C-alpha cells in the first residue's frame, strides 16, 4: 500500500522507480538538510494569496474525471453527535475534502474517529491513515476512552487502519519533482487503498508538511492528494494542527483554500475556565450555521449542543 508513490504492485508490473544521482540521493537522505517550510503563524502572505487566486481560477478538481451525473450531489451524514444539524443538507458532500483544524487536545482525532465508528455501525466503510502515531495505540485509546471496538469492525471489513511514513513520502515526492520538474503535471503514482471507503481520515497534514524540504513541493503533493482522494467519492477528513486561537488553519496556510470545507475545534479559555467549541468556517456544498457551538468530550465521544451558547 502506498500514499502516492510507486508500490510493490506497480514494480511488479514493470514500472521503474525514479532514479537519482548520488548527489541527489545524498541530499534527500540527509538528516541534516535544512527545512524551510513556513510555520502557519508566519506563512508568506503574498505566496498564500497567489495560491488562493490560482485555486479560485482552476478549482481543486482540475484533474478529476467529469461526473456521469453532472449537477447531482450526494450527501453522507457525519454521524458525530448533532453535527449534521448544523448543516442544511444534514451531511457532507461525497467526494469532498474537509480540513479539521484545531490546537492540541481540542478533539480533532476523536471527532474523526467517531465519524468512522458510527458510520461503520451503519455499514459504511472507513479508512484511517496515520502519519504520526502507531495505529494499534490509537485503537487502544479509542477502546479505553470511548469503548469503540475498532478491531471488531476491522474483522468485518468495515474499517482499515494504515500507517505511512511522512518522511518517506516527502523524500520520494521530492525526488520525483526533482527528476520531472519540467513537466506541467507530475504523476505521483497510485493511491492504493484496501477498499473504496465512504469516509477517509488522514492524521495529520501537519506531520506531512514538516517532512517536506519546501512549501512548493508540499503544495504540489497536497493538491495531488486532495484530487486523488476525491475520486473515491468518499468524505475525506484531513487533520491539521494549529494554535489554540488560530487565524490560519494549517501549517503552510494553503490547505484551507484547497479544502471543500473547514471545521475548526477550539478549547476556549475565559478566566480559569476552558470550554470546547467548534464551528463550520467554510462549506461549499450547503448552507450551515455560522456560529461557534459548544461541545463536550464525554465517555461516548463528542456531545455537540447546537442550541446552546458557549459559557452560557
Would you write up a description of this structure?
The chain has 312 residues and is an alpha/beta fold. The chain has a single domain, classed as 3-Layer(aba) Sandwich (Rossmann fold). 31% of the residues lie in helices and 20% in strands. The chain is built from ten helices and eleven strands. It has helices at residues 8-12, 22-29, 45-58, 108-121, 135-146, 150-155, 166-179, 205-209, 215-230, 255-258; strands spanning 75-76, 92-93, 97-102, 126-130, 159-163, 199-203, 235-241, 261-270, 273-283, 293-298, 301-304. Strands 5-4-6-7-3-8-9-10-11 form a nine-stranded mixed sheet. A two-stranded antiparallel sheet has the order 1-2. Strand 10 (293-298) and strand 11 (301-304) form a beta hairpin. The longest helix is centred in the C-terminal third of the chain and has 16 residues, at 215-230. It is globular, with a radius of gyration of 20 Å. The N and C termini lie far apart (48 Å). The model is unreliable at 5-20, 24-43 and 54-68 (pLDDT under 50).
Inertia-based shape: globular
Find the structural class using helix and strand composition.
alpha/beta
Annotation field: number of helices: 10
Query: What's the gyration radius in Å?
Result: 20 Å
Strand order of the largest sheet: 5-4-6-7-3-8-9-10-11
Strand content: 15-25%
CATH class: Alpha Beta
Please tally the β strands and state the result. Answer: 11
**CATH homology superfamily:** P-loop containing nucleotide triphosphate hydrolases
Biggest sheet architecture: 9 strands, mixed
Along the chain, the helix and strand elements come as HHHEEEHEHHEHEHHEHEEEE
Number of domains: 1
The mean pLDDT is 81
Query: What's the N-to-C terminus distance?
Result: 48 Å
Low-confidence stretches: 5-20, 24-43, 54-68
Task: Provide the helix percentage.
Answer: 25-40%
CATH architecture heading: 3-Layer(aba) Sandwich
- In the CATH hierarchy, the third-tier topology is known as Rossmann fold
